[in-house]
């Protein structure tokens, strides 16, 4: 009989509430014969304040025993900016080599967008997750003086670029439109830009049925608001991906419905799935948080583990729920219950 | 009697057409006693193809004799990507130390925006122009092999950050709302982020009447589409500024109306004013280009040279023209004529 061994990291703020709904839906959608084992971890602000720790080697060894990780949200105003981001979120991405940062954007029926005219939006951003300006390379001299110099080094390797570009081509090939757009700034960042463009063009020869396209990152932000329908799959650098996926989430209904996967396709390490939104401490504990983004992250998790039918059922349940939502105000729990009923039925 | 000694660079594609309208309006708005001297330069694709040159030391020495530069657009598909960008546009910004890259965004009456509900948009981005990831620092090893490593180094100095932050504070102080937002990614790019944040907070103490704010660049793209009215003045890094000003132009009516100034506030070198749009070779020579962005760049030029009343008149003429434009289709020349009549009247 099959089983899923899942690490659960509720985290801070609304994390606890939304993760509970994600698990509820996961339990409801899984076939009877699949045994779901979960272990909860207390990472985040509480743990940091109690022990000063964010993510230790022992923690990583524990997490590594699981097949996947479901995370709610990490971050609290009581912790200095950057400490949990670099000490937990990024540390985990790098330690588990989450090089495919997957961020789908679909404007679902019934969901409000800031764009006029309710455009068609259905694309996926494949953001590189382990290189670029996120490596922590760089430094500071003469700190705090009028002669301070601070550098940030974006590190890009053929190995790192090729694996994520290849993954993106495969994802594009599996979609009806079969289109892949490289987003970079190769006219200015010529060293990294040349590497990305060259690898992209080389890998393209192996996927002759995929249509390719190149857009500078600045122009990409224009298209995301004037013509988002032009995108199918986008592959991009870590920092450009960070920026355009927040914009993509905003135009396709907001971060309340944006899901993401930090994926290691080789499954050598567990992949992590999380809503794009943060911990929203202002509404925490009030049952006001929308668990939809977490539930959609559960769908990504299911697909990653090979439960394609179940993933599709979760996505269909979310679409149906959003389509019928109208102006009703429901609690976090009520939305979770409604989705659990839909996927079970 | 007063005079303006202007270098004119029509450049490629629609550059010639739009610059002609900019000069027409400039001539019409200047008081009789101001003598306008212009000298035209042939930089761009033609010069590159004829001589292989983009911008020589002798060119820079010639340009330096002028008080300001008006540029149409540089770039053509016949020139490899990056050659004119780095060999001309960026070279000029660095050679003339254009550290204040000024990009106002106003949603003018009658102008279409991709955003629903016609929000109020009236902010200015002060983009740093001589540092960050634009310095060309970095390199490549093992080029073209599976072991290639390419780096890009973002260089940030206290000197460079402080002067642009100070300029932005002064601009914010001169505006009714007196609000300045720092946009960066200091939770991830900790070296540069610390320098920017620290300098920003220090300079803030000299401007106690300016309200300050900090937003990560990814979140800034969300606010630009969901709540652009929250912004008054934004100060940011060279690359973040490149990205968010294209988005800002898109939401406030498109690059057809977006103006920019590459400014050296000390006037040690001539500042350069140009529309944000490119050379649009597909519509070049057909009288279809909208010269509005160039005319608004002329307004920035006038204000930089101390002709505040004239700048205001140009902006008012553009607002009035856009407000009454409706569905009429006019040629580049007709729009320029209409604006020239308005500023003269
Ligand atoms: C919290 C932060 C470190 C993170 C990032 O920059 O990647 C976030 O913005 C994201 O997109 O997941
Ligand atoms: C053409 C390019 C070099 C330039 C930049 O990246 O700065 C452009 O995008 C801009 O914003 O002026």
From TrEMBL, chains A, B:
Q: Which reaction does it catalyse?
A: (2R,3S)-3-isopropylmalate + NAD(+) = 4-methyl-2-oxopentanoate + CO2 + NADH
Coiled coil stretches, renumbered: none
Enzyme Commission number(s) from the entry: 1.1.1.85
Residues recorded as binding Mg(2+), renumbered to this chain, are 218, 242, 246
Cofactor(s) essential for the protein: Mn(2+); Mg(2+)
The protein's site described by Important for catalysis is found at: 134, 185
Which keywords has UniProt assigned to this entry?
Amino-acid biosynthesis, Branched-chain amino acid biosynthesis, Cytoplasm, Leucine biosynthesis, Magnesium, Manganese, Metal-binding, NAD, Oxidoreductase
Q: Which SUPFAM superfamilies match?
A: Isocitrate/Isopropylmalate dehydrogenase-like
| UniProt keyword annotation of Magnesium present | yes
The record's comment on cofactor binding reads:
Binds 1 Mg(2+) or Mn(2+) ion per subunit.
UniProt-listed Gene3D superfamilies: Isopropylmalate Dehydrogenase
Q: Does the keyword Manganese apply?
A: yes
Q: Which domain of life is it from?
A: Bacteria
The UniProt entry lists the main location of this chain as cytoplasm
Instruction: Kindly list the residue ranges recorded as spanning the membrane.
Output: none
Q: Which pathway is recorded for this entry? A: Amino-acid biosynthesis; L-leucine biosynthesis; L-leucine from 3-methyl-2-oxobutanoate: step 3/4
Where substrate binds, per the record, is at: 93, 103, 127, 218
Q: What residue stretches are annotated with the Isopropylmalate dehydrogenase-like domain? A: 5-339
Q: How does it assemble?
A: Homodimer.
Could you tell me which HAMAP family the record lists for this protein?
Answer: LeuB_type2
Q: What is this protein called?
A: 3-isopropylmalate dehydrogenase
Which organism does this sequence originate in? Streptomyces flavofungini
Which gene carries the instructions for this protein? Answer: leuB
């Amino acid at each position: 009989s099959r089983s899923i061994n899942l690490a659960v990291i509720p985290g801070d703020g609304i994390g606890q509430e939304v993760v509970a709904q994600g698990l509820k839906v996961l339990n409801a959608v899984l076939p009877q014969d699949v045994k779901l084992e979960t272990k909860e971890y207390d990472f985040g602000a509480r743990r940091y304040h109690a022990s000063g720790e964010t993510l230790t080697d022992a923690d990583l060894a524990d997490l590594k025993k699981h097949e996947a990780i479901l995370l709610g949200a990490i971050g609290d105003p009581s912790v200095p900016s950057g400490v949990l981001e670099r000490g937990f979120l990024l540390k985990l991405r790098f330690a588990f080599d989450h090089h495919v940062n997957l961020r789908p954007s679909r404007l679902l029926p019934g969901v409000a967008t800031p764009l006029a005219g309710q455009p068609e939006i259905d694309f996926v951003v494949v953001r590189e997750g382990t290189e670029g300006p996120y490596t922590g390379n760089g430094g500071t001299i003469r700190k705090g003086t009028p002669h301070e110099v601070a550098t940030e080094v974006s590190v890009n390797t053929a190995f790192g670029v090729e694996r994520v570009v290849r993954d993106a081509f495969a994802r594009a090939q599996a979609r009806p439109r079969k289109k892949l757009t490289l987003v970079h700034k190769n006219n200015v960042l010529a060293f990294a830009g040349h590497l990305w463009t060259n690898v992209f063009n080389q890998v393209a020869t192996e996927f002759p049925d995929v249509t390719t396209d190149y857009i500078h990152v600045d122009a990409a932000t224009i298209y995301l608001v004037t013509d988002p329908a032009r995108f199918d799959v986008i592959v991009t650098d870590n920092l450009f991906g960070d920026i355009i996926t927040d914009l993509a989430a905003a135009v396709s209904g907001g971060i309340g419905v944006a899901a993401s996967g930090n994926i290691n396709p080789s499954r050598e390490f567990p992949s992590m799935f999380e809503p794009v939104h943060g911990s929203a401490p202002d509404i925490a504990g009030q049952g006001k948080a929308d668990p939809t983004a977490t539930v959609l992250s559960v769908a990504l998790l299911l697909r990653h583990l090979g439960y394609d039918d179940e993933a599709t059922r979760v996505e269909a349940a979310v679409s149906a729920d959003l389509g019928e939502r109208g102006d009703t105000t429901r609690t976090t729990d009520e939305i979770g219950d409604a989705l659990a009923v839909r996927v079970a039925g």
